[in-house]
Amino acid sequence: MAQSNENIVMFPFMAQGHIIPFLALALHIEQRHKNYNITFVSTPLNIKKLKSSLPPNSSINLHEIPFNSSSHGLPPNSENCDVLPYNLVIHLFRASTSLKPAFKEVISSLTRKNQGQPPLCIIADIFFGWTCGVAKEFNLFHAFFSGASSYGLACYYSFWTNLPHKKVTSDEFVLPDFEEASRIHKSQLALNMLEADGTDSWSLFLLLLE
Ligand SMILES: *[C@@H]1O[C@H](CO)[C@@H](O)[C@H](O)[C@H]1NC(C)=O
Ligand SMILES: *[C@@H]1O[C@H](CO)[C@@H](O)[C@H](O)[C@H]1NC(C)=O
Ligand SMILES: *[C@@H]1O[C@H](CO)[C@@H](O)[C@H](O)[C@H]1NC(C)=O
């Protein structure tokens, strides 16, 4: 049985394809387990938009953490992939790592408000690997959540780890550690994948080499 008023902290990456499934999960948890307090963390403009998406009877707490896109080489008010051209999206990914101190403060403040009892868990985006360190620091359970299918994620992980498209001259390739996925055609790749060679900004960000 869950103790009453335990906090669940949810933190999606700032893109609609991430925020929407996180919100669906938050509403699902709220529906099923009424005694959890859900704290949904995002940047100011995303929180503003989320306010109008929450059903009026929801008790999900929207928690804003500071972010100013202008300070990260992004155009003003750029807090979501949906307002960025392709070539600037990677800058938002990079800038997102700057949210760590503010995110830690969210956990600290929830802990203080709850008589020193830290939140039950952090449910974070797959692009926020650094939240694992925060969870460890506070000794919290940590889970990743993605709206993508497990098959798609397995392909994605294998692709970025191996960059198999660079090792063939043909238009098709197999994933070396996931051959069951069958043949993949280069035309199925997103532009950042097609361009990836291990030294580009996406490879460096995703392989945490930077
Ligand atoms: C959970 O939410 C309720 C209602 O907003 C609040 O009274 C309570 O203090 C919250 N509990 C925690 C642990 O934050
Ligand atoms: C909010 O209202 C909807 C529609 O009546 C209902 O299905 C849902 O369970 C309610 N949610 C909560 C958290 O009470
Ligand atoms: C963001 O930073 C820019 C440049 O430093 C500043 O002009 C602007 O007022 C800031 N925006 C907000 C919302 O704080």
TrEMBL record:
Superkingdom of origin organism: Eukaryota
Family in the record: Belongs to the UDP-glycosyltransferase family.
Span of domain Glycosyltransferase N-terminal: 8-140
Keywords noted in UniProt: Glycosyltransferase, Transferase
Cited Pfam families: Glyco_transf_N
SUPFAM superfamilies found in the cross-reference section: UDP-Glycosyltransferase/glycogen phosphorylase (SSF53756)
Protein name stated in the entry: Glycosyltransferase N-terminal domain-containing protein
